[in-house]
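Model the whole thing, not chain by chain.
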Amino acid sequence: MDFDWDTEQQGFRSTVRAFLAAHLPADWEELAHGPGSEAQSAFSKKFCAELAKAGLLVPHWPQRWGGRDADPWTAFILAEEMWAAGEPRGGQYMNVNWIGPTLMRFGSEEQQQRYIPAMAHGETIWCQGFSEPEAGSDLASLRTRAEKHGDSYRINGQKIWTSYAGHADTCFLLARTSPGRNGISIFLLPMTTPGITVRQIPSVIGEGDIHEVFFDEVEAPASAMLGGEGQGWEVVRTALSLERVGIPRFALAARMLSRSVARLQGDGRFGHGAIEQAARARAACEAARLYSYNIVDQRCHGIPTGPEASAARFATVMAERLVGEFVVEHMPDALAGGDPLLLAHHQRAIVAGIASGAAEIQLNLIATDLLRLPREPR
Amino acid sequence: MDFTLTSDQEAAFSAIDKLAAQFDSRPTDFHGFALEGQELDRQLEDGQYFDIAAIPEYGPVTAALAVERLARSPYTVESALSMLVRPQLAGEWPRPLALVENGRPGRFVASAKTLLILEGGRIGAAKPPAEALESVESLFAYPMGRLKQAVEVTWFSESEAAILRIWLRTALAAEASGLLHAAIASTVEHLSVRKQFGRPLGTFQALRHRLAECAVLAGGVRWLALKAAATADPGDAALAALHAQESATRVVYDVHQMLAAMGMTLEHPLHLWTYRLKALLSELGGRGGQASAVARHCFGTALDQ
């Protein structure tokens, strides 16, 4: 058991930090506010294209798709550094973490050729059409319909809370082709397809972050379906397992905590109450970090992800909460024009237990699969 | 970064696990507060397991895993200080060890061959004569004792004391991790069989979520303790001990609430783990003490010990 980074890993982290230092503009922290905003989206395309040229966008992807087959640690170190910097990749982190790998596993040759190179070059933004007004945690009850008409499907319905939809080129869409859990299919749909309407939802979490997306008699060719008809649930479970420790939230949380503490120390305001809260938050960040590293380590050893991934996600939620509360209590000016990155962190931290699925679902999984408590009646 | 145990570590841990497994059931006629594991202690001595941290193939990580495993047993043995702190002491200091913090009663003090004395900012060690020690009745589920007269103390240098503080915190976290996991496992058992409103309590989401949160905290304590044992870093040790005491505070309350009156009885073993956790809450300065150490080592804040 070894908790140290090897020379290669340290070197890779230094390379990523040097790249960030060289490529993030002086006003980057202002931009980081609003991860789906027009300015951030435009910047992320430029930034990701440069990352790709430097071999730092998809190093863990197979060579065939522009990567170098780097191990999961490389991907995670990259993700930590990007997230700690305020995530300059914007929504493209999803391409790197799970949309690309999911297409590699389930996509047709035509779909792979059409979409994967653009992701590997950092030129394209995707959104995920999962949640609906009546289907959040109970995702399998989604109602958006895709009805077969000859060689194509006609899609009608509504998605909600869709991140990055305002600037997305393509939607990874879940729609119902027949009743039940085995009646869900996935469509890869250009957002310019006639019949798609996007409406931004004003929110406290930042400009351009969440949207409603309406599908009105949208025609999708059968070739737009990912995997087979009814295979959607299986595909999504695979994709979500890649995403469960996808965002190293603890990295930005720990950085923002240190920044806040340094400010308080500078002002002579780091007294005993703040010390106890900061120390608790720091311990929670480190616990979340180690939980996440354990999952990465399992991936490296080819061990299938189990309920520990749910525990890792919940440990991260706990850490985000403690850091978020610390900043609000001790650095309130951060939310009033005092520090754009602390503000951006706050806006991301408050959805830690919500984005990519309510954390209570993870508690259910921990109770059943880790603790082996008897199941709830259905 | 690699969380896999080496084959040597794996073998040593599985031997200790096998040994400890013989002591996983409590005697049905025991209705006391502290259940001592003299036979377990003897077998660990015979196998020379208390010295594994000093063997390079095993190291402190294996020792921390062993402490964690042994703490899950209803029978308590003095393993944490022997396995994790004693290897750091220069000179011959026989086990069992016990900590006397500012003159307060402590765990295993009455039977200790070596006392670690924490007084203000200083740490020293003493080999107390038996007549200087006495047992104390307590709820704490450890054999508690106190030092009743002055003993000759060898005081350590500041740098030696700093190293000992790392290992005292790591030992506390490793012990707490095992206790937390055992208390949660005991609660899972109760919630799985106890029925109300026609179904097991464990099917009610109010309890499932609460216990799942406890499990996440306990798992975090385990990781932080193992990391502290691996790095011997003062910041890592302070984080581990803080998260241990913080988590214990919450988990002990929650599991007792879930066991309700049954958890109040001496017939049920829950108190063996929760009251040991309560004994750990005040050690090494409690949460305030650990937070000060985190501030000093992780945030660069100069504070008192």
